[in-house]
Here is the input.
Amino acid sequence: MIGIGQDIISLFDDLGDVGMLMAIAVIIWIDGTAFPTLPEAWMVFIFGTNPGSFAWGATVVVVASVASLAGNFTLYALVKKAKLPGRIQEAMRAYTNWLILKDERLLILNRFAPLIPYTGAFIAVCNWNVRKCAVYIFASALAKFSAYTLIFWFSFDNLRAEVAPWVSLAVVAVVIGASVAASLAYKKRQKVGGEPQRSP
Here is the structure.
C-alpha cells in the first residue's frame, strides 16, 4: 500500500507540520478501518520532517495513537450497524476461542504479534467491553509508536540525514518481520494443540 501513503502525504504536504499530522492520522485511520497501509514506515518520513524536536516526536505518537483508536472504532461501528452474516460471526468467535487469550487482552498481544485482522470487527462480533478495548488499543499504540519514535530519534540524531531514514525503515522492516514470525509461530503452536472449535 505504498502508493496510497504517498498520495495522502502529498495531499497534505503544503500544510506544513499540521499537514503531516493530518497525513499520519489519515494513514493510520485507514489502516485500522479498511486495509493495511504500513503506518510505521510513513511515520519515519513524517518524523523526519522535524527530527530534532521532542515535542514533535511526542505529538506524532499521540496523534498516531488517537488515529489508531479512531480507525478501530470506526470499523466497530460499521460492523455493529451492518450485522455480518451469522456464519462469518461464528467463524470469528471460533477463531478467538482457539487462541490462548480470548478476550479484550488479545488487543494488546495483537499490537505486537498480529493474530487478528480488522480488530474493530472482532470487538463488535465478540461483544468485548468497549471501554477496556479503548484503553488497551490506545495504551498499546502509545507503547509501540513511542518505541518506534525513540528509534527514529536515535537514528536521525546519530546518522547522516540521507542515511537515517533508511536505517529507521530497516528497523521497522525487522520489527514487522519479527512480529509476523511470532504470529505464525503462535498459530502453528496452537494448531498442534487442536483445530479451532466451533462455538456452541
The CA atoms of residues 98 and 111 lie 18 Å apart. Residues 2-192 form one domain.
